[in-house]
Amino acid sequence: MAKLLIINPGSTSTKLGVFEDETLLFDETLRHSTEEIAQFDKIVDQKDFRKKMILDFLAAKNEDIKTFDAIVGRGGLLKPIPSGTYAVTDSLVYDLVTARGGEHASNLGGILAKEIGDEIGKPSYIVDPVVVDELQDIARISGVPELPRVSIFHALNQKAVAKRYAKETGKKYEDLNLIVVHMGGGVSVGAHTDGKVVDVFNALSGDGAFSPERAGAVPPGALVDMCFSGKYTQKEIMKKLIGNGGFNAYLGTNDAREVAKMALEEGNENAKTVFDAFICQVSKDIGAQAAVLRGKVDQIILTGGIAYGKYVTEEIIDRVKFIAPVTVYAGEDELLALAQGALRVLNGEEEAKEY
After folding, report:
1. Quick check: is 145 in a domain?
2. Which residues of the chain are modeled with pLDDT < 70?
3. Looking at the domain assignment, is residue 140 inside a domain?
4. Closest to 200 measured CA to CA, from 289, 100, 78
5. pTM of the model
6. Where are the alpha helices (DSSP H) in the chain?
7. Which tens digit of pLDDT belongs to each residue from 197-237?
């Protein structure tokens, strides 16, 4: 039985989980105030501050860190890499420390995991970071050579629910053709075949359906006109696309539950139109990925926080059930997904990949 410490850093919190195999013994969210975070110029500068909070919390729980068999961190913004569980090496830490792929709180996951792991002489891992890139070559072509399509999506949860479905049906993930739809603050719809995500809509700043706070695909000509109108700075335009887009732009909230209430209970016709447009766009993305898989789709999987909504899932299912059966795994469990990734290595099911 393997005992694991899972570290999932967010912008204003650090989520911890202690597991014995896949059994969660306890978890905790350590909150960091704006004032605490503001004292650091760069995210990497928060390392010692967060590490002390983690160790202090474990000490208060009478947890001896030497009893852990491995430390697992959330993967950060690295270079594009295939899916899998990666041993945290010096070169991986270097790219996180130097923010090779950009500044993000998740960069601290691998850094903290390795530092704590090294101190107790145990291995450290990251699992399926957002930069997982398994795109087929034709999926990279956008129509403008200088603007290739890139793979940025909810890799950790997409891979976790795909493998969960395979396990529950007694099949191998690598033998299935799946379309996985993650619906949270961002939306990503991926085509899984041969154990790889060969096409996926960019969940951050690219294409596909709009989401609670992201614009998704917008008319490019009109966007260019907006950029050169003189009314907005580059930062303001980006905020319109990421953060203040989607539900936020139309309805002033990024809470899908609030949008559902406005649309379905309060009779807000504008909210109903926007909500139904979201459902239609996600369904269109599923149809697009079905074409990528040449119509040979074994299962469609709906996941993420929005998948808790009965109206959303029923409406999407009604639109796409002609393609394949649909399974709903509402929510996401990042701590468990990270634990499972490490366990596959510790149990000998997979080999740890080298960055």
Report:
1. no
2. none
3. no
4. 289
5. 0.90
6. 34-38, 47-60, 90-97, 107-120, 155-168, 220-227, 234-241, 247-251, 256-264, 269-292, 310-320, 334-346
7. 999 999 887 799 999 999 999 999 999 999 999 999 999 99
